[in-house]
Amino acid sequence: METEPTLPKEIIANLENKYRLNDPLWKQYVDYLTDILVPRFSTAEEVPSLLTDALIRFDVGAVHVKWMNFGPSYASRARTVNDIFKAQLPISAQLGVLALCIALTIGIPMGILAALKQNTRWDYLGMSVAIFGVSVPVIVLGPLLIWIFAVTLRWLPATGWGTWQQAIMPSVALGLGSSALIARLTRASLLQVIREDYIRTARAKGLQERLVVIRHALKNSMIPVVTVLGPLFAALTTGTFIAETIFGIPGMGKFFVTSIGNRDYPVIMGTTLLYAIFLVIANLIVDITYAWLDPRIRYT
Amino acid sequence: MSNRKSKLVFGLVVLATITSVVLAGCGPTPVPTPTAGPTPTPKVITQVVTPTPAPITGKLFLNLGPGDVPTIDPALSTDTSSVQIVEETTVGLTRQHEETTATEPGIATEWKQSADGLKWTFKLRNDVTWVKYNTATGKVEQVLDKDKKPRVVTAKDFEYGVKRTLNPKTASDYAYVLNFFIKGGEAFNTADTKKLSEAELKKLEDAVGVKALDDFTIEFTTIEPTGFLPMVAGMWVAHAQPSWLIAEKGDRWTEAGFFQGYGPYTLKEWVHESSITIIANPFWPGTANIPKPKINEVTWYMLDDTPAMANYETGKQDAASVPLADIDRVKADPKLSKELKIAPILCTYYYGFNTKKKPMDNPKVRLAFSMAVDRVSLIKNVTKGDQEPAQWFSRPGLAGAPTLKDYPDLGVKFNAAKAKALLAEAGYPDGKGLPEITLMYNTHEGHKKIAEAIQQMWKTNLGVEVKVANQEWKVYLKTLQTDSPQIWRLGWCQDYPDANNFDKEVFRTDGHEYKATNWSNKKFDDLVDQAGRETDLKKRTELYAQAEKILVADDAAMIPIYWYTRVTLTKPYVKRTFSVLGGLEHIEKWEVAPH
Prior knowledge:
Chain A is mainly α. Chain A contains 11 helices and 3 strands. In chain A, a hairpin with a 2-residue loop joins strand 2 (56-60) and strand 3 (63-67). In chain B, strands 13, 14, 15, 16, 17, 18 and 19 form a 7-stranded mixed sheet that branches. In chain B, strands 1-12-11-10 form a 4-stranded mixed sheet, with helices on one face. A 4-stranded antiparallel sheet of chain B has the order 4-5-9-8. The chains are: A mainly alpha, B alpha+beta.
């Protein structure tokens, strides 16, 4: 990267020709959309080409169906955006889901504890942990974990992905920050709900405190938490650049960042589109969950 | 600097190859020898190819740097990580010795230039076969042809390789290196595929000056007499390529499971974005300079330097390059410091001038800026990798490049007093009257530190305030080509280890950086042209020395800053070589002791 030569213009012309970059912009855009949206059918055996690859491919009898071609990656001469989605997205999704699970299992109980024991030592402890989690970013926590658990103690592998040992440190490093956010939200929301009249009613009719908290208070206080979970889910599962770089995880995260520096347009467009789709789906699920959490919310 | 031997080999390369011809013979295949054994004893067997199980053991773990290997297709490779894999899985007609940069036999055993100097003929080995890794059996197998016979690597495969690289439809970035030398190369490579018919394109392809005379003889026709063509003919873009496989698998032929090669190693597994593994090719005949591999499997991770360093320290990796931040710690550590090695690589770090913009249109001002850079202090305090202070552009170690031993006073050295005097002579005493000057670099932490240090040196030594700016790499490259700032940063690494690749290809009129320097000097052009044709190494070196004097002193079109080194750690149980070829390792020469 420091020493890349400036290419002669005939070489650039050949590259532009190959990637159809010398077409007018409107045509490139129409071609791009057509490649993604319109399925292609053919009966001929084609020689594999990175330009006519597709994310979804199957055969119906003798007919080959190809659908959703997000184009080649300019930075790689061996892969397409479809390949990146197929191989890297599942890895990022696994890491994201694990991190989210950790965030929820730590964050929600911590928030509840802090709210129920407001202004006690539990509250202060929980919130100190939360402030620590929010203020220490992955870029600090990651190398710290590696130094303690991989280099010094030799308990866990420093890098890579595929075994459960390799998943521990990155999920914790990622999950901890989000758990802090969730804990604070849960606490604030629960504090508000717990002062509502219907909680007093529930207690007055002699319900166990456990049921009061879980069934009446917690369920209603989850709406703000669930609201942030949507974007959080989309952000974590489509890849996290810093965590993936520190722990050497072959996920999607870095494509969001490096593709811009590389001017790798198909990858920029593909990753952006992917993130948008995840965000829309996650927010849809959030909206549906609202209705379950609070029966007053109805979509007609 | 220990790599001076290249001089001996340059020129009439044939001499150097005779020994290997004797070893290689015409058909005999040395039998595989046990691991880590002494030099293989060649035993003559009548059959050309004999599948023999090879008792090669051991694994090695290395790092290639962050990001997927962009490709392992010889025609498309441009970067070190791609070329590293290509050079182990396929072999050129010739090959550079990784420490001396001498041009040695690869698949070719001997080569000679025609009387008029325009034609080069290469004789090929006949005992190298195409191989592939069978994922089902876990073994490396020979590729069979239609008659179920092992496919031997032939001159036709090389001819196909060169022509595929030059084909405009392949859109190879590095085709231009061949365009420079091979007759008809540029005409074919620049053909407009949209306008020309298939027949017209075929005609241009046939006119390319590379031809298989028979199965084991190939002839190159050059545009003008080119003394170092054997070196260019050995480059990765001119490697043999499997036409039958590419016709069937298209762009996907390089994937593990499909890939076919013929080097000392072949591709075993390529986990994109994560790791790439090559496995020893038991059918590799083992030649005098490319022995049979001694390590069975080599895996490269694709990690940033810092996680790779953690891997090294936890024993998951056998060698690693040391991140800048860790250098002081490693040097102080009693155990790590023993595993540390600082080795040269053939790259130069430099600043260029836009000689059209004031005040850099004045050579005296340019030389003053160059002389005011204290390279020794920069290396000691900022870059810290024991780099060598550069006095000129073509890095010593390249064939034809002057060396500090023979030319101790060539080029520029730090001299604050003289720099100040020069600036005054140019009409700017103590920098008075200078317009605003901008130094630009591509966004990067290391370049920033260097730029700020040099900015300070100019302020102290010349009394000049220089503005520092930076841009993202791709944007920056465009700026250099369209409207380069007064001072800009770049580096250059060898594509092939010859001064021609530096002086002529980068700074000659119409060279790579011509639009950034706007500098043209007839005498310099003549000198580097003449050096390219010259075959006597001593004379060539003298010509390049004269050219360098013009480039960095008389005209001072650029500021040579330092010659690269790399800082690596290697576990004590690894016996290895340290390549100067931009870090391209010849792993078949490495050994791993049980540990």
